[in-house]
Design brief:
Blueprint: H1 2-30, H2 47-58, H3 63-79, H4 88-91, H5 94-104, H6 113-138, H7 154-170, H8 175-194, H9 200-228, E1 229-231, E2 238-246, E3 249-256
Antiparallel strand pairs: 1-2, 2-3
Helix pairs in contact: 2-9, 5-7, 6-7, 6-9, 7-8, 7-9, 8-9
Length: 258
């Protein structure tokens, strides 16, 4: 009898938790406010990450910075010549997974699923374009001589983009979330150095590119969002233009209050 009662309790608890998660997903997916919440950061917040990018860029023309790259690389080769890990390939996405995981269990962030995902996509798009172009324009050889796509560090950029994404969404609840995200990001950068995939200036610049991409996304997205879901000034009717995907084709849906 005791075993039966325990089993029934487990089943009831599982169903209750499943229902809670289901309600959370439904509410988050179907709730799309007219405007996104105010940003944590302003335009001046772009200055620190821009400084990181500038530091990396100076390594091409300022000898002491480039010399520091060589010194750090030499020291790592001496102390940990056999170090190798692929952990950073997973760490770079950890903050993003945590954000959606927290939301899944009912810990809501700053924005709904729709806006949050759009912000993440916009951040990734900005980083993808700028990072890819810079890698090919700079044509820097990696420390391991694998290719000429060393600057900036793509893994590090993605990790810091994700860390800033987590900070934007959850630092309003606790600074611990931002610390966790940036710890994953910093560890990713360190592992790229110890794997001899990047120079120190590559990693610093990658961090700057990642943070800048997310901050810029959160800065411009409210204008994009409000433009897509705005009120027609002539009629006072609400107009909504939203991208949709149906039968393998992407289309724009247009709706107006009658």
């Amino acid at each position: 009898m005791k075993r039966i009662l325990v089993a029934l309790f487990c089943i009831i608890s599982y169903q209750a938790n499943a229902q809670k998660i289901g309600d959370t997903i439904k509410k988050d997916l179907l709730t799309a406010p007219d405007t996104v919440k105010h940003l944590h950061s302003k335009a001046w917040a772009l200055i620190p990450p821009a400084g990181l990018v500038a530091y990396g860029a100076l390594s091409f023309v300022f000898h002491p910075i480039r010399q520091l790259d060589y010194s750090i690389h030499t020291e790592i080769a001496k102390t940990d010549p056999n170090f190798h890990t692929v952990t950073e390939s997973y760490f770079q996405f950890a903050p993003i997974i945590i954000v959606y995981g927290l939301n899944l269990v009912g810990v809501s962030g700053k924005n709904t699923f729709i806006d949050r995902t759009a912000l993440l996509g916009l951040s990734a798009g900005i980083l993808g374009v700028t990072g890819y172009a810079t890698k090919h324009l700079t044509h820097r050889l990696r420390p391991n001589n694998e290719d000429y796509l060393s600057f900036p560090s793509g893994h590090t950029a993605t990790a810091f983009m994700a860390a800033e994404f987590m900070a934007q969404e959850y630092s309003g609840k606790s600074t611990v979330y931002g610390i966790i995200g940036y710890t994953f990001a910093a560890t990713t950068g360190v592992f790229r150095l110890y794997n001899r995939d990047h120079w120190f200036s590559d990693v610093v610049a990658g961090a700057g590119y990642g943070i800048l991409s997310t901050k810029l996304s959160y800065l411009v997205y409210p204008y994009i969002r409000n433009w897509l879901t705005h009120t027609d000034g002539k009629t006072g009717k609400k107009v909504m233009v939203m991208p949709t995907y149906q039968d393998g084709t992407g289309v724009l849906s247009f709706a107006m209050d009658l």
